[in-house]
Specification:
α6 runs parallel beside α8 and α9 crosses α12. The protein has 286 residues and is α/β, with parallel strands linked by helices. α6 links the parallel β5 and β6. The strands form 2 sheets. Strands 4-3-2-5-6-9-7 form a 7-stranded mixed beta sheet, sandwiched between helices. It contains 12 helices and 9 strands.
Length: 286
């Protein structure tokens, strides 16, 4: 089967199967060989790796992954793409296509079955509309994963690796950085895709930490505090946290804890480091 990393071969296969892009799945297929090679390189894929690919589409990146990895498990939700994948990946005996929704697939069981429980690597060109839910589920589920290398909207990649005091820093930055070390490894312009998206994209690699960091007494409570802090990011922390009725913490109590930490009551969430959020969470816990 011809490689799909160029527009001509992609157009031929789409025409053959009379495939029409479905907006509900946010489909944008990559048609740039150098970008595909770069993703495989930056994901550090080798013959000992099991790669979990989310949303293989017509199998473009899957072909490149299969040539470097030991095994590839490709999870595709669109039933119209399954017969296309059977053709485009027919020459690769190390690829397993799974027809399903990644948010419902038991990834832990899959990794156990295909890789004896040894950590896998995730590689994906993610649909923009569902990027955050997929990444957060992969991170929060504490799955046996080494890294997650994904193509996402450029502004989302910026938010994932943003630090305190910047406009992009927020709940997503803190959540991603709690579980992993993020690094943007490539920028990808709209003309590398079909159909062409309206925004620029970036490839970001999340290298998972052995243990989430910084340490906290209650992880769920930490993220409730973080969400409250950024729900109205222009408000001071005492105002934003006390305005969340589910927390039941008074403005005075937040100000008191901030003083204990050596911070002013006028401080906003965007100014706190991950370590300071962990300390705030531990001190505010009932």
């Amino acid at each position: 089967m011809a490689k799909l990393g160029n527009m001509k071969n992609t157009a031929e296969i789409l025409k053959k199967y009379d495939f029409h892009f479905r907006k509900k799945y946010g489909q944008n297929f990559l048609v740039d060989e150098s970008v595909l090679e770069r993703i495989v390189k930056e994901a550090e894929i080798g013959p000992e790796d099991l790669v979990l690919e989310i949303g293989p589409g017509i199998g473009t990146m899957t072909q490149y992954l299969a040539e470097s990895a030991g095994q590839v498990a490709a999870v595709e939700i669109d039933d119209e793409l399954i017969p296309i994948l059977a053709e485009t990946l027919g020459d690769y005996d190390n690829v397993r296509v799974i027809h399903g929704d990644i948010l419902k697939v038991d990834v832990g069981a899959l990794v156990q079955e295909m890789n004896g429980g040894r950590p896998a690597k995730v590689v994906a060109n993610l649909p923009y509309y569902i990027t955050t839910p997929i990444i957060m589920q992969l991170l929060e589920s504490r799955l046996p994963l080494k890294s997650i290398t994904v193509m996402v909207q450029r502004e989302v990649a910026d938010r994932m690796q943003a630090g305190p005091g910047t406009k992009d820093y927020g709940a997503l930055s803190l959540a991603v950085q709690y579980y992993s070390n993020p690094q943007i490894v490539a920028n990808v312009p709209p003309n590398c895709f079909v159909p062409r998206p309206n925004v620029g994209s970036a490839v970001i690699r999340l290298t998972l930490k052995e243990e989430p960091d910084p340490k906290v007494r209650d992880e769920a409570f930490l993220f409730r505090i973080i969400r409250a802090a950024f729900n109205q990011r222009r408000k001071t922390l005492p105002n934003s946290i006390s305005h969340d009725p589910s927390l039941g913490i008074s403005r005075e109590r937040v100000a008191e804890v901030l003083e204990q930490m050596g911070l002013p009551a006028t401080i906003r969430g965007e100014a706190l480091t991950p370590e300071q959020f962990a300390q705030l969470s531990d001190l505010l816990m009932p």
